[in-house]
Amino acid sequence: MRHRDSDGDSVYRLELLTDSGRIPLTQLKSSDRRGKRRKAEIINGFLSNPEQQTLKIVQDDRWFALLLGGGLTAAGLRLLIGALEALSRQ
Questions:
Q1: Tens digits of residue pLDDT in 11-40
Q2: Rounded to whole angstroms, how far apart are CA atoms 46 and 24?
């Protein structure tokens, strides 16, 4: 389902539509429309195939977290080194 965030940007969340309402399948909303659409296609395929007994969808965001964490760590280390260099010159 498409929503607008506080900045007016489109964000998407995977939801299951039932007779009793919408059930969110993802905790967070993101701008990854293509990824959400692909997961929805997999789920719809599962639901339309009564012979398929199991469904497993995995979302692995470790690479994003690794890149973000590594970048922030590098920036923090650079600031620390700069501060130590400035102190040693005094």
A1: 677 788 889 988 887 766 666 678 778 888
A2: 17
Q: Determine the distance from the C-alpha atom of residue 4 to the mean position of all C-alpha atoms in its chain, rounded to a whole number.
A: 16
13 CB neighbour count, 10 Å cutoff: 16
The set of residues, in sequence order, having a beta carbon less than 8 Å from that of 23 and lying 6+ positions away, is 15, 16
Tokens for 12, please give them: 């998407």
pTM for this one? 0.48
Provide the residue type at 40 as one letter: A
The enclosing H or E element of 35 equals: helix 33-47
CB 15 within 8 Å of CB 3: no
